[in-house]
Specification:
The protein has 599 residues and is mainly α. Helix content is 59%, strand content 4%. 51% of the residues are buried.
Length: 599
């Protein structure tokens, strides 16, 4: 038997990979399917904008009815009510309604929305039940409209995501396409609420998509841009949080803003742990969880008696803090009491968002730190208003680890260009401190407790960077199709070089690749005089030498094979053989790159 590799081996006509390369699959999606997804996402952006408007109107209606006794859908603050101590009963009643909806409707409405959407992406192929699409906004409107200290953005993001998921299920899309539609709906909801299309895309990437690719970015960006355009049409292009004109930051001030960001990052760790400590405390109560939101509402009401501005969404409070219109003492008291009210309400399992409360708390903290720096070190030129914005964005960056979204969100909601540098420095420090001090985030701690692993790092696929021809074993040891099983067994028994391999390419008389046989198939052959060709059960599955190891791994997984012949790009020459163990061993190179000496 001659087991040498011929110089050129024509490949048999049946030599066709059963799976296209990853790049080819993406290209197919990037042509017809991506265009379709983008068109669908434009529609989702319109729908998400409508949902955002509807939810805001519903919150306004409930707020006006319960606190001011009037029929109006204008989003207004509960502060200024004339209920006296009776105001305590309002958030309690809202919490009771939410508890009943969660128990008899869907438990998925509990919480602030984004972690629940993340769980559906990671564990349920982005399938969100249809009932959640209307139960979540309705429960959030009840909770917030009756004084819950939440923002509407979390429920709107969750509702937009549910809408995208439901549309994907109706249209029988793949799990990847459903994830894109879910993220597009969520981004549209956020963009429609705040007019922050870029931040909405980045938030979707960092918390829902877990990838940065053409196929996902374009549809999500289309939905976000569409929803933001709707907001401009309906409400104008004014910034959500209006600020007076700010000057460019001085170098000393930049150092102060960075330090403030680091301190806010520590606060983010404390706040995150406090949220789940309160949740754990509720878990130990000897009553059914359906009653917890009502208990949380009791605390919200009591705090609301002391500080009425803690009730409801409170976007006007954030504007007052970051613009400097609110007095320092008032801002600090409001932030502290908002923290207490929000922690208990969120820990009780009611329905509401985290962004607005975190912005209020972070803004007050940043304002206080900025005022202290301006008083103690006046030469630095610290502007307390800038510090408030840094605190606002930094607390969210540290708590959620949505770093880029936090920076762009603060910029887009203020449209103040001189904030970009302080935001970048402050949020970087907050992100760094948070990452060093805790392994999970306010979005992922709950999921981690359920055994869900949430991706946190985005890196290029190592296997995508290496061509199969670089790793394949050469020259490949082959067996001839017309040799008998007896001859092949004798060769294996000889212990010649290559006989220890677990599989071998089979070539015909002309040198064409016919298939692959395993050593076990040769040894188990019933008829010793049977030709090797008769042992081949499937058409050969090959990979070309300039395709990537990711392509090869995908082929192995789909074809359920442990080895692949590697052929030249023109499919006329057998280059080598690639095995699963080759894929495993190549990771040693990746691991070596993480050590200083490469060992």
């Amino acid at each position: 038997m001659d087991h040498r590799t011929p110089d050129r081996i024509p490949v048999s006509p049946s030599l066709t990979p059963i799976l296209p390369s990853s790049r080819a699959a993406i290209q197919q999606l990037g042509n017809a399917r991506l265009l379709w997804l983008s068109g669908m996402s434009v529609g989702l952006g319109l729908a998400a904008a409508g949902v955002a408007e509807g939810l805001s109107a519903l919150i306004g209606l409930i707020t006006n009815l319960f606190f001011h006794g009037r029929l109006s859908v204008e989003l207004t603050s509960p502060a200024g009510h004339a209920l006296g101590l009776a105001v305590i009963a309002v958030p309690m009643a809202g919490g009771l309604v939410v508890g009943l909806m969660a128990r008899f409707g869907s438990t998925a409405i509990r919480g602030h929305g984004i972690p629940e959407a993340m769980e559906q992406v990671l564990r349920n192929e982005s399938r969100i039940p249809v009932r959640v699409m209307w139960l979540k906004p309705l429960s959030a409107a009840v909770a917030i409209g009756t004084g819950g200290p939440f923002g509407a953005e979390g429920p709107i993001i969750a509702t937009g995501g549910a809408l995208g998921s439901v549309v994907g299920q109706w249209l029988r899309t793949s799990s990847v396409e459903r994830k894109i539609l879910l993220a597009a709906g969520a981004a549209g909801g956020m963009a429609a609420t705040f007019g922050t299309p870029v931040a909405a895309v980045l938030l979707a990437v960092e918390l829902l998509l877990f990838e940065f690719r053409l196929r996902s970015l374009v549809p999500v960006a289309m939905a976000s841009a569409t929803a933001a355009a709707c907001r401009i049409t309906w409400h104008g292009a004014d910034p959500f949080f209006a600020l007076p004109a700010l000057g460019a930051p001085e170098p000393g001030a930049m150092a102060a803003y960075t330090a403030i960001g680091g301190l806010v990052g520590l606060a983010a760790v404390v706040v995150t742990r406090a949220v789940y400590a309160v949740e754990d405390a509720f878990e130990h109560l000897p009553i059914h969880w359906m009653w917890w939101p009502a208990l949380g509402g009791l605390v919200v009401g009591v705090v609301g008696v002391v500080a009425p501005r803690t009730l409801g969404v409170g976007y006007e409070n954030i504007t007052g803090i970051v613009s400097g219109e609110m007095a320092l003492r008032a801002a600090l008291v409001l932030s502290a009491l908002k923290l207490v009210s929000w922690l208990v309400a969120l820990g009780s399992g009611t329905s509401g968002g985290t962004l607005a409360p975190l912005f209020t708390i972070g803004g007050g903290l940043g304002l206080g730190l900025g005022a202290a720096a301006a008083t103690l070190l006046p030469a630095l030129g610290v502007d307390a208003r800038v510090a408030a914005v840094v605190g606002m964005a930094g607390l969210f960056a540290g708590a959620s680890r949505a770093f880029l979204a936090s920076v762009l969100f603060a910029f887009e909601t203020t449209l103040e260009p001189h904030l970009l540098l302080p935001l970048l420095a402050g949020c970087s420090a907050a992100y760094l401190v948070s990452g060093l001090r805790m392994n999970t985030t306010i979005m992922t701690e709950k999921l981690a407790r359920r055994g869900v692993r949430v991706p946190s790092d985005y890196a290029a696929d190592f296997l995508e960077q290496i061509a199969t021809g670089e790793v394949a074993s050469r020259p490949p040891v082959t067996v001839r199709a017309q040799d008998t099983v007896r001859e092949a067994r004798a060769w294996l028994a000889s212990g010649a070089p290559g006989t220890s391999h677990q599989g071998f390419p089979v070539v015909d008389a002309a040198g064409g690749l016919v298939g692959v046989v395993t050593q076990r198939e040769i040894l188990d052959g019933e008829d010793p005089e049977m030709h090797i060709e008769a042992l081949i059960r499937l058409d050969p599955v090959v990979v070309r030498e300039h395709e990537t190891l990711r392509d090869a791994a995908d082929l192995m997984a789909v074809a359920d094979v442990g080895r692949l012949p590697v052929v030249s790009d023109d499919a006329r020459r057998l280059v080598g053989i690639l095995t699963r163990s080759d894929l495993v061993s190549i990771h040693r190179k990746r691991l070596a790159g993480h050590t200083l000496d490469g060992s």
